Amino acid sequence: MRPPATDSGSDIAPAAEAGERKLRYEVIRNRLRQAIVDKRIVQGLVLLEGPVADVFGTSRVPVRKAFHLLHEEGLLQKFPGRGYMVAPRGQQVEPQRLAIDEASLGQDAQGATIYIPSESERIYGEFEQSISAAVVFGHFRIDEVRAMKYFNVNRVALREVLSRLVDRGLVEKSAYAAWRAGPLTARAIAQDFEVLLLLAPAALLESGPKLDEPFLLGLRQALRDPEAVGTEELLRIEGQIHGDCLSRHPNTKMLGILRQCQMPLIVNRTFCRMFQQLVSPLLLDEYRRIVAHLCEREFALAAEALAAHLQAARKRTQQQLKVLAVLPEPQFPDYLVRVA
């Protein structure tokens, strides 16, 4: 079960809730209402906030509000003492004190838990993608007020995202409290590659033995059919190899340094998204070799394969930069203000 999420009024529901902006109490109310109408919940079932909150993986606050709204609709009756009882308004029903679980609430055992991302999680992907694309084309200031308006979030959520991007080396905060991004330079990329070549293979050598077998087999399966690997799938695999595969190293300082060496990955992501071309067979072969050695527990060979991949990636990135340098600057969101 996922840990209870915060009850922010601006959180949104997952795709399973039709992609609409919903609050947790609305999701809970709608699910319980439908289950009551469909008679998937036994008449007279006594509902208590705590057990119902556990089923949905949330706190009691949205459950309490959902109960109140269902009571106002006439689907629940107040139960003497604590909680509510499933019964139409005015109807005499015998209370049923049963165990509260997914089945008794008429929910799918695999999908009852409600996961609604925080505001910062909701906007992170789009924000990171915009910053990554922008730094390829120059130096930008991030206008907080415009960004809050663009994403419809508060300053706290926005700064959570900005802080994460600082940790990844994508954004920096100037002495005058302005958030800035870029410019991405050939020198910065060369320095990142130098650090990656020194540290990443060593990190994989230590982290590799601690990786879960299902994770590695999943990576291997994803790389099995080159024609099935599209741009976003490639970038997901790239993130796992350069991030997750190294993440079990015990030296957190080393991992922090590696996380900040993002410039080469930024160039590749921007290039791949701007040119929705067929994925390079050579790149997939490099990833397959790394993963194959990890699956066979040949960790020294996996580290060597990662080093060879980084050497090849350095040459590819130089070519990608030359192409990007002659492209017209795309339209960026208004919260990205070019610095002269």
From TrEMBL:
The keyword Transcription regulation applies. InterPro entries: TF_FadR/GntR_C, Tscrpt_reg_HTH_GntR, WH-like_DNA-bd_sf, WH_DNA-bd_sf. Residues 22-89 form the HTH gntR-type domain. Keywords: DNA-binding, Transcription, Transcription regulation. One of its GO terms (molecular function) is DNA-binding transcription factor activity. This is Transcriptional regulator, GntR family. It comes from Variovorax paradoxus (strain EPS). The lineage of its organism: Bacteria, Pseudomonadati, Pseudomonadota, Betaproteobacteria, Burkholderiales.
